[in-house]
Amino acid sequence: MESLSTTATLRSFSKYNSNKKSTKFPYECKICGALARYTYFGAVSCDSCKMFFRRNAEFGQESFKCHFDGRCQVNIHNRHICASCRLAKCFKSGMRINMFRCSNSTIRNKKKTKTKSISKHLVNVVKQNQVHMVKDF
Prior knowledge:
The chain is mostly helical. 54% of the residues lie in helices and 7% in strands. The chain starts with a helix and ends with a helix.
């Protein structure tokens, strides 16, 4: 009798697990059709398209050129081939740049400012060092 109840318990447990696995990725990416879990930047998308959009959206559509006059089919198998059409599909699907938490350009500008101030400081140190070397000569 114990084995029958154990078997029934295992069946119900495996049924629960199989249902859980099928609902793990309940959505389809609007850009490439891959499995998606969340909405990123205003559109249901997979992690690959999310990161692609984050890296390229600020450059704008003009920075990419489609070799097939913008008629590429973007799907999970060829999404890496045409960045222009993929970015266009991201925007058409509802992704928006203003939904970035922290803009990459802001980060880049902060790094540039920091690098500039360090560079100026190094130039001043080198100049002072040269003056001391001339005086000591």
